Amino acid sequence: MNKIQAAITAVGGYVPETKLTNFDLEKMVDTSDEWIRSRTGIVERRILKEPGKATSHMGATAVQAMLERENIDPEDIDLIVVGTVTGDYIFPATANLIADKVGAKNAWGFDVSAACSGFLFALKTGASFIESGQHKKVIVCGVDKMSAITDYTDRNTCIIFGDGAGCVLLEANEEGFGIQDSILRVDGSGREFLYQKAGGSLHPPTAETIANKEHYVYQEGKTVFKFAVTKMADVSYEIMQKNGLTSDSVDWLAPHQANLRIIDATANRMGIDKDKVLVNIQKYGNTTSGTIPLCLWDFEKKFKKGDNLILSTFGGGFTWGSIYIKWAYDPS
Ligand code: UT7
């Protein structure tokens, strides 16, 4: 019997309609379109404005559209794994809410908290259930409503983040396509440079934590930038080396979209041409767990069966890693 591998067999995505442009931000904080473009590559981002709608709404919309497009009965889904740090609630998990909204009545699910690495950590987790033969259809979703934890008076962070969701369907493949390898890492000593200070069990919400703005994302940008450039570039190179891939044999890099300069540094380290690098940061900003599946969604039509994709990320915590995929289908 051939080895069972987990292959992506469909992708989906959703971004809210409302755009927040660099010019809008110029009116909110002391910044400029020129500064944001040149330091990050971001031009605009999407914000989920509608009252009563949050992370599960974006995730469910992406998943539902994918299932409808592929004509898949939601009741056939076995498991939903969601990478997010902005779940609708502390509990229950956003996976539960998405399952309910899309009618995945026979599924179980849970959330994975790994900040900007949420999608890759969730993908590896979901893939294991396919590879072990326990499940036939697994949905992995990366989604964040960063606007819910962004301080729009802090120019260090509010220019970066946006809202969005992406998802993939995983199914078994016995012909050598799908997820080939992964290298995933954490270093908790990096927690103080990028995190949400209050709201957890260490510092539960109080009038003081709210007054101190401790429920917003806090980032020491320069320090995180240094770690991100090194770790994301190194791990992308490492997974190439480990799998005998060369700059020619890598077809696509789907990087976390945090900063165009980090993406460029990663591509340089891998020695790959710019036209192999998937970039949509200009449209969506940093959607945390959403960036990589949104890239797969935006650029799906470019991928051919057998293409070698490297997915790479770096995020708060710290968390980082790469996944190597042999794409399983041609564009329809
Ligand atoms: O997604 C998870 C991981 N996160 C990341 O990978 C993000 C990593 N960090 C970054 O992408 C960058 O550090 C930022 C985009 C956040 C900041 O860019 P930077 O080139 O590192 O800028 P900086 O923080 O070193 O600031 C340079 C200058 C400072 O002024 P002085 O001290 O030189 O006078 C800042 O006060 O730019 C100033 N500045 C701004 N100016 C205009 C900081 N933010 C802004 C702003 N507009 N929005």
What can you see in these coordinates?
The protein has about 325 residues and is an alpha/beta fold. It folds into 2 domains: about 170 residues, Peroxisomal Thiolase, Chain A, domain 1; about 130 residues, Peroxisomal Thiolase, Chain A, domain 1. Helix content is about 30%, strand content about 25%. The protein contains 11 helices and 13 strands. The strands form 4 sheets. A 5-stranded mixed β-sheet has the order 1-7-6-4-5, sandwiched between helices. Helix 8 packs parallel to helix 9. It starts with a strand and ends in a 6-residue tail after the last strand. The model has no long low-confidence stretch (mean pLDDT about 95). Bound molecules: oxa(dethia)-CoA. Oxa(dethia)-CoA binds next to helix 2, helix 6, helix 8 and strand 12.
Summary, kept brief:
It contains 11 helices and 13 strands. It is an alpha/beta fold and 332 residues long.
The CATH architecture category of the largest domain equals: 3-Layer(aba) Sandwich
Mean pLDDT: 97
Instruction: Provide the list of bound ligands, each named once.
Output: oxa(dethia)-CoA
Strand content: 15-25%
- CATH third-level topology of the largest domain: Peroxisomal Thiolase, Chain A, domain 1
> What is the makeup of the main sheet?
5 strands, mixed
The CATH superfamily of the largest domain bears the name Thiolase/Chalcone synthase
Give the termini separation.
29 Å
**How are the strands ordered across the major sheet?**
1-7-6-4-5
Which residues sit in consecutive blocks of at least 5 with pLDDT less than 50? none
Shape: globular
Helix content: 25-40%
Which value, in Å, is the CA radius of gyration? Answer: 19 Å
Number of helices: 11
Order of helices and strands: EEHHEHEHEHEHEEEHEHEHHHEE
- Level-1 CATH class name of the largest domain: Alpha Beta
Strand elements, count: 13
Question: How many domains is the backbone divided into?
Answer: 2
